Amino acid sequence: MSDRATIALAPGDGIGPEIMNACLEVFREAGVSDYVDFEEVQMGRSVFAGGESRGITDEAVETIERCGVLYKGPMGTPIGGGGKSINVTLRKTFGAFANLRHFQSLPGVDTVFSRAGVPVDMYIVRENVEDTYGGVEARLTSDVVECKRLITAPGCDQVHEFAFQAAKRLGLKKVYCGHKANIMKMTDGLFLERFRTVGDDYPEIEKADVIIDALCMNLVLKPQTYEMIVLPNLQGDIVSDLAAGLVGGLGFAPSANIGDQISIFEAVHGTAPDIAGKGVGNPTSLLLSGLMLLRHLGLLKRAGVIENALLATLEHGVHTGDFGSPETEPVGTSDFARAIIDHLGQQPSEQEAKPVPTHDTLTYSPPVRPSVNRLMQTFTQQRCDVVGCDIYIATTTPPLELAQKLERLAVGTPFKLTMISSRGTQVWPSGSVYTEVVDYFRVRFELEDKHLIGQIGQGPTIHILRRIAEKFEVADFQPLKNYDGERGFSLAQGQ
Ligand code: NAI
Fold first, then answer.
1. Does the N terminus or the C terminus of the chain have fewer Cβ atoms within 10 A?
2. Closest residue by CA, ligand 1 atom 44
3. Is the C-beta atom of 74 inside 6 A of ligand 1?
4. What is the pLDDT of residues 48-84, one digit of tens each?
5. Are residues 168 and 229 in the same domain?
6. Cα-flanking dihedrals φ and ψ of residue 15, to 5°?
């Protein structure tokens, strides 16, 4: 282990460089440079403008992979034109699978809960790379577009393992899993099942689950119920902004994107283009994210000293223009940083001071470069039997007429037509004529003779697909399989 760490640094766009400078000044004065060197990398607006649609240079990728840690300011995503969010690209490319955010009431930050004397102190762990954020989207018919929602067992295991480990390290007693498994029984169902399985290894931590809509209501009514919540990507994205609102807004919410090899620490707010260049941005979120970075490196003493100085500064009523008392004049970004520096060594008096160990120990080592992409697997050696297929058809033919045509096409194959649905609701063989349909139907063929389960491969499903494709416009195809005898596909609503 080296006695110094090199961290890739991307100041960001908009207010990014202003608030990053403020944070680095606080770090310097607190002695972080005794252990850490920052190496600046190019990404964001200037790189997009130079025609690189990834928004990041090859040199930046190389530096981040070498350092294993990136400290970044907010970055703008070009609207339209196909350019993807650099923030999402970074998390996915470098496998930063868990997004950890800490939401705590801060002195001087006026909120509904601070006024009511209800302290908020909770962590949200959001799965960071899967779900609809895979961005696997396609137009299936004239009227229908699709986004594939991929949830994987090893992806779930990684994020749950991280959550329980973090809860243990932070001394938390209970972890909740937020989900919508009552509706999305397979995807959210897997997320919940893996939460329970991984949680079995942590008997000292209490586990509970909560449906996402009830969670949102409870968070607004009694946020003090929760210490840590682990969530799938999209739900986690929404709930963590809700939680930011509970503690005063995005300006106070730090965020760490943790991977096995590479981790990214960033503010959760955007580039604030309306105030960029004016020197008035609030650096608190980026600074708190920087403290998560220091703790990731093992620099617990310096992180504690800086956090206590920040709390003491806030208690003294020092604030930027986006928060604080209207009776005191706001300060600019660099004066806010200067006030924190002036409070280094002081402790907050109104709330518990953060622990400050006697010395720092750099525990971080940069990643060892793997030679191939790591294959992650949870379930192996499962028996997988083809039982039929769903063929998705672009057509405006009414369901009954469609069924008659399809039944004729299935003659001479091992399959029979068992169901037609539109937008997930069964419209044949039973259903209601009041169910509105679109130009996209799922037609399900299942093995007529159940004794053939385990006897046939994929061939016959491709054969019936060919037959259907000769008469209809196929929009999509899904072989149906049982895994270890259990149905590996959902039923239609009403089936
Ligand atoms: P935003 O967070 O930049 O701004 C929303 C409002 O909050 C604005 O009024 C802004 O002035 C204020 N605000 C945000 N951060 C502040 C701070 N530190 N101090 C004081 N006031 C602050 O969100 P918006 O306007 O939707 O997005 C602007 C750009 O930022 C977009 O290009 C978006 O893609 C990008 N963005 C980047 C993120 C990242 O890098 N992680 C996250 C969110 C947005």
1. N
2. 270
3. yes
4. 888 888 899 999 999 999 999 999 999 987 766 666 7
5. yes
6. -75, -5
